[in-house]
Amino acid sequence: MDDEDYILRYPPQPSEASNNASSIQNVSVLSNHCRIRSIKAKHIYVYFVGIQNLDAKDSIQDENSKDDTALDGVSDTQLRKDVFTKAVVSNDDLKSKKLHFDGQSYAYSAKSIHKNWHSVGNQSGSEGKSEYKTTVGHMSAQDHASLPCQFQVVLRAQRRYDLELLDRYCKGDNSVPETYIQGLLYALENIIRGFDSSDFVTVENKRLSIYSALIPNDGNECELYWEYRFTLRPGRGGLLVNIIPKSVPVTSTDTVESLAYIHFKLKVSKETPREKTLEDHVGTKDWLAFELAIRNLDVSILGSNSEVVHRIVRLSKEPAGELEFDNMPLAEYLQHKYGISATKYDTKLPCAMTADGMPIPLAICAIIGKKVVGRLANWQQSKLRSLCIVNPTKRHKLFEHGAQVLANSNSTVFSTFGIEVDPELVCINAQVLEKPRLLMSKPTKIHDGSAEMKPVRLSVDGNWELKGRRVLDGRQLISWAVVVFGCSKQSLPSERIQAFIMQLVKICKELGIDVHNTGPPIKYAALSSGDIQLVMTEASQMATAATRSDMPAQLIFCILPKHNVQIYGELKRVALTLLGVQTQCIVANNVRAHNPKLLSQIALKMNVKLGGVTGELHADDAPCLAEEPTLVIASDVCHSTEAGGMSVAAVLGSTDMLARRFQGTVIQHPKGLEYIENLDVIIRQALRLFYKNTGKKPTRIVYYRDGVNDSQMRDVKKLELPAIYKGCRLIDSEYCPKVTLILARKRHTTRFIRGSHGSDASAKLGLHNCLSGTTINDVVASPVIFSFYLVAHKAQVGVTKPMYYLVLHDDNNFDPYRLKTLTYSLCYTYPIYNRPAMLPSALYYAHRLSGKGRLQLSQRFDNLPAFNKLKTKTGTKRKQEQPPPYLVPLHKRLQDTMYFM
């Protein structure tokens, strides 16, 4: 088990025959990938590019220095490209080599260009890297626009990649190092992204990427364009291009027009009658805030040759169509002076009034320099997001168009490397797994007229109704209290809170959760994090006093005026580490609304925190768990912004045979650390708790790991898998259960769309989201590692995002079908959803606990650097120096509970 070769060996992709089962429905789906037909170049040569301004005083460096940063004195991307292009054109040695420069640090070529280079030795006399130096004639530097400068361009040979190895890797040869493939793919991506295409759309004089106005206005006044980003991934049998469309506003983000466009040119929905037209915005607080944001900005006139700088002093009260300048209408003046027609701007919007008295329409105001204008209002963000959501049919058109643009490109970059792209999207064979069954309770009448609770099978078909069913294990809530933070009795009277509590109690009883005290004490408190400990202590005492048995407080129901991380974090810290009481938080507006769906979710969360169970999988649908004692473990690492950017790791282990309940452990990590330290001690604790609750030692461990990318995958397996074996040996030196390590990845850009006629996925009309339970492990999956995509949930809007699972280690030799079924079944056990979740419940818990783990701190949230910024006398801000916070153990009353729900 300690053999490093065995640890680092990945399970191979199973054959197609092993994926077939009688209960699987075979379908075909379309993906947002297209194939690369061929790459004629045999090698890719990578060169480091250093560009130095010889006329700058601080650019004089020792010629013998081999530090790459010493050769990189020019930072502006466009200037680097211009200098490099001139260096290539003006030198015969480089002119015929057709180098592609990414504008940052590297240039790529299909043929070696360093045959005539001299080899530069280092100080020790050994041979160094081949390099080529050339000096570019006088050009204008960005920082010295009126002072032409001389630049020196240095090319150093970095690496040569063999494309034959990539072809072998795609055909399943796992002898090719992964780091080699990652570097090769990085080089190819930079080459593909740099091609020239006639399908560029120039927006505000900028050509950032490929744009295409495929989606028309559809009645929206905000016209959206779609920016394509292309990434490469090795698929089963060949290299694939991942097509990623991203919606962007029609204007760039460094002009005043874009700010006005996003803020005010979005068509307002009918639900907000106070903002019916653009004219209605004039004089409102939105326009006033916008005026304050752009005041004193220096702008120029976009689309003109004038270099005159204007200073904005205010917004005009009249729209552009009613303004005059220099004794003529503004539109006529702009046409005569700068050749700018009125079609370039919206005459209904106001203008920016400048210090010299000239009004400039917002659409042609270009900010000199960049400035961030405040965040959008909530309704503006919601409206912009709604415009970006398209149905599967339109999304398929975007994928298809991106493939066509890439395949039909006549770029010199493509011809240099001999890249040919297939214009058709790949069609993939997929399988739809059978949906699992859940066990929940339902009242059943017996012969004497009374009723008893019996578990019933619930055949799941997407979403299911909770009405008429009860949770499998409903707990009692006896001692509890309500605390209202930051809301007065006038804004949120106690009668309103009592009505909300009565509705909540009613739903709890319908779900089988017994609430004894239907009138808990209510306490109003000021919104101050410094008094939270005192307030929560008093609320806990009030809850105990309200019960006859002096039972300690089980739960404190907290009502907050709005989402506030500082207050929320402090009350959670006090409750979890000092008082040992469960909490349930809710925003005041939701108390006033009485949403039945929200009340059901709150009731289910309260029951889980108290130790109850919503439902469990039927044993026949979880054979991997039912056959042998199996411990399910999940972990995740969260890199937070509070406390100077600490990292928090969460590890959870199941405490019963069917993975219904979990116990979690939180660890504070050094900043940016991805692998989990002291995992062996946590595994030992999880094994002991499993044995305590079930009386059996696990013979199998299924470990789900979240949040690991390709570059970290090998290191995480190398460090964490031996830690699991070590944790087992801490129980008994001879104890060695079989371990299966599954990496779950949600941060990817792969999408799947199915056709309307079952297997006819090539139909262009009536495209839909994939069915729940769809699995794909062909074409787009890893060619050398057992991996698969799983669509467990159903998207409410847009296109469903699948989860990507990589089986990095499998001592149990699970059948692929059974392992997929286990993962899919666990998506149905998240206790507050009446539908399948995107992730297995264990991973959802780990994700929540790692995000909320930072709440278990040794100091108040007021003292964290992210929240405590002191102003000096000069008005500048500095962070108060604090000792690094660390996580404190959970209160002993909560250690075995699912407090993280």
Automatic annotation (TrEMBL):
Q: Which SUPFAM superfamilies match?
A: PAZ domain, Ribonuclease H-like
Q: Which residues form the Piwi domain?
A: 555-850
Q: Which InterPro entries match?
A: Argonaute_Mid_dom, Argonaute_N, PAZ_dom_sf, Piwi, RNaseH-like_sf, RNaseH_sf
Q: Which domain of life is it from?
A: Eukaryota
Q: Which SMART domains match?
A: Piwi
List the GO molecular function terms: nucleic acid binding
**PROSITE patterns given in the database record:** PIWI
Protein name as catalogued: Piwi domain-containing protein
Question: What species was this sequence derived from?
Answer: Coemansia spiralis
